[in-house]
Amino acid sequence: MRIYFAPCGIALGHAGRCIPIAKKFQANGSSVYFSTYGEAVQFVSKAGFQVGEVPPIKIYERSDGTFDFRRTLAIGPKSLLTFSRQIGAELNLIEHFKPDLVISDSRLSTVLAARMRRIIPVLILHQLRIMIPHTRPITGKSKLTIKRQVERLGLEVLGGMWKLSRVIIVPDFPPPYTIAKANVVPSYQYINKIKLVGPIIPKYPGALPPSDELKRSMGFDDRPLIFAAISGTYAEKKMITDKLVSLFNEFPNKYNIVISRGLSDSNHAVPNGSGKHLRIYNWVDDRYKYLKACDLLVTRGGHNTVGEAIYYKKPMVIIPTIGHSEHQGIAESVSNMNLGKTIQQNELDYLSLYNSIDELLTSPFYFRNVQRAAKFAEKYHAVDSIYKTVCEILNVPFKTF
Q: Does 177 share its domain with 322?
């Protein structure tokens, strides 16, 4: 088989979940090619795959990492031009690679280009409904009604194009553990094409040694280990890691703390924080070792990261970006499922962070909840499910999992 992957290039989450699927196909003798943009190009190339770069779709952010809706909206006409150029680039790359099937992760341009080339498109998408971002609570009933109607209209307009895919794979859990509850709301136009397969996890906990053994191998003692795995765009990551470094430097020595800034294009190690309890890295090559070894995860609330935390039985402190509708919705879901606590960015200080971590690590209530969620997650193996789905579409024999 010849499989063409086209993940969204905004941040690394989309490319990050396509890479383990691509490795599955490659391990079974398939040829693989990627197209993407932004920092995802280098990220995919470092993973060992051929990658073609297409014109980037841009979003604007403020210095604190928050989404600048007005500036992004102002370049609307230019974005349409970029979108058409992206389709043209995809047409050329698809013609060059001649795939049997295209897997698009949250990119409409690739779905359209695949259909134009008469190639089967499969879509990976968890933001079925795009939420209008807002930094302040919407209190007026009429404004709230308008917002919901516009979001529903957007859902159906996009739905008319997403339905061009043969299958729409949603990498999320069904209820009661759906991570992006606010976004996993399908259009009636493609509801019969949806397959919920669970989050895409490259490495499951059982593939790693016990957490105590991992801690010792990485030079940690018996103190609880906090792992801050930061994801998002560059502005998001810089703002929150600078703040966390400052706060964690003041934490007592009763914790071990690791911060990964999530900067894949930088040197891995950076100077340690003050005291032996804090380690700071620009990037960690195998974050699953840290995820298995840690006792608690601090995250922005990215979809992939939260899914991994559920599989690895880790309670979470989520610090969502202001106005980031997806992260805000995921943080609300995690809090409602009692798998972690949310601290809003503008409320983040020493006491809010310390008290949240202390409560999560000392409460049997949260421990039992993460254990139940992980038990539910055990039956979902997204990479195998996606591989099997593609084999069935192409009528190719597949191995038993």
A: no
Residue 29, sorted as left (phi over 0), alpha (psi -120 to 50) or beta, turns out to be left
Is 30 a domain residue? yes
Query: Lowest-pLDDT range, 3-12, 133-142, 223-232?
Result: 133-142
Which residue blocks in 205-257 are alpha helix, DSSP H? Answer: 211-217, 234-248
Residue 179, token pair as written in the block: 């991570």
Residue 252 resides in a domain:
yes
**Percent of the chain whose pLDDT exceeds 70:** 83
Distance CA 79, CA 59 (A): 10
Residues 6+ apart with CB under 8 A from 340: 309, 315, 316, 317, 318, 334, 360, 366
| Whether residues 172 and 189 fall in one domain | yes
Burial (0-12, 13-18, 19+ Cβ within 10 Å), 48: exposed
Domain count, the chain: 2
- CA angle (313, 316, 321) in 5-degree steps: 140
Same structural domain, 214 and 132: no
How far is it, in rounded angstroms, from Cα 366 to Cα 341? 10
322: CATH? 3.40.50.2000
Structure tokens at 197: 């397969």
Asked if pLDDT for residue 201 goes beyond 80, the answer is yes
Phi, psi of 71 (to 5 degrees): -65, -40
Please report whether residue 13 resides in a domain. yes
Which segment of 24-33, 145-154, 169-178, 373-382 scores lowest on mean pLDDT? 145-154
Do 319 and 300 contact (CB within 8 A), yes or no? yes
The model's pTM: 0.85
Task: Report the run of H or E that residue 257 belongs to, with start and end.
Answer: strand 256-260
**Rounded to a whole number, what is the largest CA-CA distance in the chain?**
60
